[in-house]
Amino acid sequence: MPTLLHNAFVCTGLAGGFIENGAVLIEGTKIAWVGSLSTLPPQAATTKRKDLGGRVVIPGLINTHAHGGLSMHRGCCDDGDLFQWASALAPHTASLTIEDNRAGCTLAVMEMVRNGITTACDCTRYGAGVFASVASEIGMRSLSGALANSPELRPNGRPNWPLALDETKEAIQVYQGNGLCRFYLGGHSPYSCTPQLLTEVKREADALGLHFVLHVAENRRENEMILAQYGKSPLAWLAELGVLDRRSILAHCVWLDEKDVDILADTGAGVAHNPASNAKLASGIAPVPALRRGGIPVGLGTDSTLSNNCLDLFQEMKLSVLLQRAASLDGMIMGASDAFTMATIEGARVLGWEAEIGSLEAGKEADLVVLSLDHPLGLTAERVLSDIVYHAGPQHVHSVMIAGRTIFEGGCFSMIDEAEIRSAIHKHYQTSEMNKETSDA
Ligand SMILES: [Zn+2]
């Protein structure tokens, strides 16, 4: 039976889309209608009704870059730049098993949902289907896959190609039919993959009609390495290899020059911007205003709990604006609507999922978050947008609906027993090889 969510302040995520005394009609997994209660279509008159008590409804937040499987390592390597951090981290992840990955992904998905994230693009080295499996059990939407690497180019590298391809094909068979999962093929980065590997992964991704994920231009030293090796910037090098197009999702893109921005605009690739991770690993601040001026889709990402350490897009929205203003001394360079757009519809565009998710519109999937926001002066479009980006946090998340199903409400998950799962994860962690290495380090 269709359900009408009413008595809500609805933010559709589209320009000017703020509806006081709004309502959302849900039919099956989709949104059938959104609007002001006074314009409710006649067929909605007899539906089941849910009073949201004046709360705010926003599109589900979209995390364009995460590494859920590393969640058990939160806080184990908090200092150093990207390369110091990666070296310090290597011994802790060397023996990571699929079970460790599953436990980490479970913690990550629960944290993301609590924080109003309804879709995440997750990266791992092994177990391309693990995040999809866990997310499906909890009811979250995912774009999952594994990043291939060339073992000789990484500390403690182990080969994971063509294993990642086989795992991804298997995961597609098992999970893609459930309506919540999509998959990609990826490479770790231009400095940890040979050109042969990058082009092979991209070719296989194209053959399967999948997106291609890569970390690019994250740290200045990466650009120096690629320049020394190939005589070009990472972006120019990847464009020459022919691996950039509309189905490329590039994480970070911090160190870009004007030509690189043009390359991104020409190829149609999207960017996953991770402001907290880039700041914590002393990588820098991505040129987001220039990217967006060039029409390049930019979404927000949390990266992992090792480099952040929260999977919280409210923080990323706020930081994305504050860092640009602090660096440019220009208080108008970016605002709340830019951040909200990146966390919703533009993030969906980066993942190639904008026809189905990212905004509250009739015909789209019913992925939405209900926030308990209460402004002392009353709710208006300006105050709600300001609160979402500069004031709100996980403590304001009242409930989360994905594909028309309420999977989290009032602090509880509807499809899983959180206490039981947490207890099993703690038990697993106490006996895992990884934990021994962490405590020995
Ligand atoms: Zn990453």
UniProtKB/TrEMBL annotation:
Molecular function via GO: hydrolase activity, acting on carbon-nitrogen (but not peptide) bonds
CDD domains to which the protein is assigned, alphabetical: ATZ_TRZ_like
Record key words, sorted: Hydrolase
Gene3D superfamilies named among the record's database cross-references: Metal-dependent hydrolases, Urease, subunit C, domain 1
UniProt-listed Pfam families: Amidohydro_1
Family the UniProt entry places it in: Belongs to the metallo-dependent hydrolases superfamily. ATZ/TRZ family.
Listed InterPro entries: Amidohydro-rel, Metal-dep_hydrolase_composite, Metal_Hydrolase, MTA/SAH_deaminase
Domain of life of the source: Bacteria
Protein name, entry field: Amidohydrolase
Domain Amidohydrolase-related: 56-406
Organism: Mesorhizobium zhangyense
